[in-house]
# Entry
Amino acid sequence: MIDPITLIVALVTISTPVLLAALGELVVEKSGVLNLGVEGMMIMGAVCGFIVANQTGSPTLAFIAGMAGGAAMAAIFAVLTQFLMSNQVATGLALTLFGLGLAALLGVGYEGQPIPDVAKPLPEALRTIPIIGPIALGHDLVTYIAIAAIFAVWYVLKHTRTGLIIRAVGENHDAAHALGYKVIRIRCMAILFGGAMAGLGGAFLSLIYVENWVQGMTAGAGWIALALVVFAAWKPGRVLFGAWLFGGIAALQLRLQTTEINVPVALLDASPYLVTIFVLVLMSSDRAKAALNAPAALGKTFHASG
Amino acid sequence: MTTPLLDIRGLTKAYPGVVANDDVSFAIAPGEVHALLGENGAGKSTMVKMIYGLVKPDSGTMALNGAPYTPSEPRAARNSGVAMVFQHFSLFEALTVAENIALGMENPPKPRDLSERISSVSKAYGLPLDPESLVGDLSAGERQRVEIIRCLLQDPKLLIMDEPTSVLTPQEVEILFHTLRKLSAEGTAILYISHKLEEIRTLCDEATILRLGKVVGECTPREVSAAQMAEMMVGKSLAVPARAATEPGAVLLSVNNLTLPAASPFGTSLKEVFLEVRAGEVLGIGGVAGNGQDELLAVISGERRAPAGSITFKDVDISTDNPNSRRNAGLLSAPEERLGHAAAPDMSLTENAVLTGQARKKLAKNGFISWTRARAFADDIIEKFDVRTPGNATAARALSGGNLQKFVIGREILQDPEVLIVNQPTWGVDASAAADIRQALLDLAEGGTGVIVISQDLDELLEISDRFCALNEGRLSDPRPARDLSMEEIGLMLGGAHGMEEAHI
# Structure
């Protein structure tokens, strides 16, 4: 039978990369920029993190390298879309393709190479408490950071001046400019933040979840992160729900595959994507309400005039 | 003479191909209400953008209280005591009133304190506002209050107001003027930008008149007539549209008890709308922006479908017909937004002419466009409506607002409509072109067409309408003969002052 405790543990682990990437993208979109390059930034984070872990043996440096890899990709996107006014959709798609290719190139020869174990943050004694131990206290530091980031992003966007300015820029960049806010600078910072978060998610994937580098290992997690942001109506709490739903179905279908029930494996493989999108579409079916939360200037190029 | 609050000397700003301001000088004394008067494109907006630090002048100097004043950005201008109420683009619909106000302040207090200050200032000046409501849910008058309070919280010495009354009902204008006079009595100078002459005559102490970027005159508005100011502004005297009195004919278009929910979160729902247009009459529909004008046009043009039985054109139910079949039947329309709605910005004038004219002008056969006929049609519009353009191959985007407006209106008029509905036909069009467009609409009605004109310019509606009705929150009032209406009555039809009260202090 399927053990519910290990299922929940697996759920939290599987959902962490998606959660990180989606949170980053949420901030980017709230500032009015649509970056479709999440997948490319994630895979760059995965490969940079893995290479640095293998070379230095330091998980901390590896995660920093992952974030830097994602942010470097985001920087390319920022320069192209914010300064050279390129189309955000086309640039984002190109960034994904470029990231997948560049990561494959950088990662040649690293498949199956050893990396150091990443130590768990909480002491052994706490982790062995029955039920709560494995479910709540046995995770990696990055997972706790991801969950803390949910609250941080929510609080900053809702209750601080920085968040208000980010939302204002995403709502109406002409008005924000007229009031004297630096639209392009604010958007660039948001894009870099989004890249770093996606990179961290990618590094988690290669260093902790899979513990290996495999070409194309993100396997659409970046796209799911993008879908989560939209269907979660740009609300951090709903992003967490969507990420856990995705992780839960992914963990469940892996276990169902081993129980040899009579469902085609391909359908099980696809199920996390299908169910997540289906449920989130239902949740955001009230279009008028969803539109209220959508950044009105999303994807529009800002050009300061006169 | 005392030192002026703001002294502007020889300010010049040129953009590629056009000099927006050429050696402009004027001065504003503390507590003075100073009008900056001019047509669209006269350089008023560029002028105030320089004062507010959004644009840097090429040459010339500004002095504030005798000290040199060179704001590098709006923040610097605000720190010097200069505040501005914008005509467009400066509110965030999805944010609350308090958030909008906080965004316009340098050091906003804590949210709770800010709400209290908003309440106290709004009470002191008779501008009631709930700090927690979403700006998207507010009426145009209330939105303007948000902007004004945002400025007042900074204790400005100079308040710039860019076309503040274009979206207000006459009653709301009255209240705004009370607030402004009170501010001026307290020593705040006001730079008031407008092209509405009567307003300037009632409110302003001094006026500077701009034409094509140059100062063409200065006057004390109370001492000259509106016609004199108009002549200075336009550079020639204007013809008043004329028409022969005609008897309205049979009912062409009727809307019967139409109710339609809003399509977007900040849109307006149409509620129980009844409307009738007869052959040969002009029906004017007034109303403050955002009260259902766009929705009404969309449902009559066919952009949105209506429930069956609610719209009848020449005794045929067309409620669920698409825009092209309505065009074929003779029901044409010209929406408000010129670029992107009435015309495709990156397509040539010829292509834009084909977009709505292809069926009625037989510009296409078996799915193939006859470019010869299309170019002839476009040239016809350009010639008859005096559209200033290098030729019919020019992109719509390249035309000035007024010229493009003449083109899109002309395009519909030349298709011999039986009913034509236009929204804001002269918005952003200079005075002489506006007079031409009004005359063309009147000529059309004289030829037996039923014309519906939706506009926020009440003077325009009174000038050309036979019957007048008002849109207020998606409801259409009963039509009344336009000739007997006074401004006060119209104001009440438009929904009065939307709960505004006058300053009590």
In short: Chain B has three domains: 6-234, 248-330+417-494, 340-416. Residues 3 and 146 of chain B are 32 Å apart (CA to CA). The interface with chain A takes residues 15, 45-46, 49, 53-55, 73-75, 78, 86, 89-95, 99, 102-104, 108, 136, 264-265 of chain B (CB under 8 Å).
